[in-house]
Amino acid sequence: MLKRLLFCASTLLVSQFSLADECSTTIESNDAMQYNKSELVIPATCEDFTVTLKHTGNLPKQAMGHNWVMTKEADAQPVATAGISAGMENNYVKPDDERVIAATDIIGGGESTSTTFSVKGLNKSDAYLFFCSFPGHIGIMKGTVTFKS
Fold it and tell me: How far is CA 52 from the centre of its chain?
């Protein structure tokens, strides 16, 4: 009986770790204005998803800062444009912009940050994009977000 109970407990623990792992990802950015991924796939089993952004470069955020912002594809450029006037103090994201699904802080070389957001209310058939809203970076630093059934 004890063996069976321990087996069930360990199986539950392993499945929780597996679910947590598939509901998170790490994306790297660098001094060459690049992400290391151009696509993010969110499994249908996730209620929340966590993105950790790591800046593998050396330059400070004032010179080559990066963040990770997610919007519907059609909202990406307008959100990035509005973010310019929001400034560095707002991480180049207009405060309370309802078009923003998730966003991290701006980070510089050697730093990391993360954001966790709910995916329950997202329409899986809509097109979503992630990008860096630091002025001028969206042209190169962007990728698609899709949902896996």
Answer: 6
Q: Where are the domains of the chain?
A: 24-148
pLDDT value, residue 15: 40
- Helices in the chain by DSSP H: which ranges? 2-22, 61-64, 76-86
Sheet holding 112-118, edge to edge: 24-29, 48-55, 112-118
CATH 2.60.40.420 assigned to 24-148: yes
35-76 pLDDT, tens digit per residue, is 999 999 999 999 999 999 999 999 999 999 999 999 999 999
| Torsions phi, psi for 55 (to 5 deg) | -100, 110
Give yes or no for a contact between 134 and 67, defined as CB atoms under 8 angstroms apart. yes
Distance CA 131, CA 137 (A): 8
Q: Report the SS3 class of residue 1.
A: coil
d(CA 11, CA 90): 43
